[in-house]
Amino acid sequence: MTNESGFWVVREPLAWPAPPSHLSYSSLGEIESCPLRWALSRADYGDLWDGSGYPNRPAPRQLAGEVVHLALSQVVKALDASRAVTPGEIASELRALGGFATIIQDCTATVLGAVSANPRAIDRMESLTQALAQSVPVVRLAVQSALNASYADGRPAATRSHGPAESGRSPLGLGEHSEVWLAPRSMTFVGRVDLIRIGEGSCTIVDYKTGDPDPTHDDQVREYALLWARDQVVNPAGRLATALVVIYPGGTHSVPAPQASELLELESVIAGRCRSALAAVADPAPKGVVSPERCRYCAVKHLCASYWTTHGQSLTREEVVPSVRSVEATLTEQRGDAVWSFVVGLDPYLAPGTAGLVTGRALGRRSPGQRIRLMDVLVDTDEEDGSVTVTPVSGSEIFLVPA
């Protein structure tokens, strides 16, 4: 991918990634969904950008979630440092931090600062900034809901626990611990827990979510309970979680904590899934799995050889034709600064050779015969004459496919 007069150029990886040494909940699920997507996202593209792998396509909802998690992490760490315990002390510490408005504003600036280094965000920073500004009420509700659910009865007094440390980790004592990294030596599975609350006879694992309730969230916190039980560094006594909580902006969802026998069964299942996933990405040419659900929001489908074939396109067909989708086309004639005619090469619903116009964005110095991939664009087909008009919308991208 190289920025060339407003175009990004499709580039094959210089080298595929090696299989990971450990898998998290998200990376395991990503490999199971599509090994090729995982590999394309983490391959070596040379001097493409300063980051590693392929730059992700930032989405407002994802960034809002990052703001929520960052804000909560900062609040929990500040409460821990101040040793605030009672609801009154917690409220006083929040005021000292500037209140929710200041906390969210500062965290939003941090998140936007980080994403500004992403080349796929360069042309979208204004719209992303506006989207985050509009999401402030939802972000505030999510942060308040999480804090209210976590600290309605105050905080347990913190104590220190002594024991051997490993890579900056050490046994956890009483109190609240945010962003806890769990990495049992006996497993290839790891995870970072939003909050672990340890009392004299209790241990609660808390996960914050900014989206809608989903059954997979129950699976995630159960897997965190397994990691907690097996991590002998942060939990040398092997104590089990007594409560699992998923906190949404609109409420709290409790998940039954697994017992020891259930953890054994879950551990066996996770081990098998990890072995299969690692084998899937050990292949020099990982397999692509094409379907509407997998490909709809894929950030690297413009690079996917499995997707851009006649067969791959047929696998993405849906009963209701989506108005926003991705099309491969060949430019035929420039009609203006922001208008080109083209013929369709690949699309799930349009026949190859169908003529159309792409409008709404200056395409730079292009030449007839160049092949492009119009990603997540509005496709409008005239019912009378069958003509097609493609219009880039917020989040659309255009890639040049080298000859």
Element string (H = helix, E = strand): EHHHHHHHEEEHEEHHHEEEEEE
Helix content: 25-40%
Number of strands: 12
End-to-end gap: 14 Å
What fraction strand?
15-25%
Segments where pLDDT lies below 50 for 5+ residues? Answer: none
Query: What would the principal axes of the Cα set say about the shape?
Result: globular
Mean pLDDT: 89
Radius of gyration: 24 Å
Main beta sheet: strand number and arrangement?
Answer: 5 strands, mixed, barrel
* Largest sheet: spatial strand order: 7-8-9-11-10
The oligomeric state of the chains shown is single chain
Number of helices: 11
Structural class: alpha+beta
What distinguishing features does this structure have?
single chain, 403 residues, alpha+beta, five-stranded mixed β-barrel, five-stranded mixed sheet, 11 helices, globular
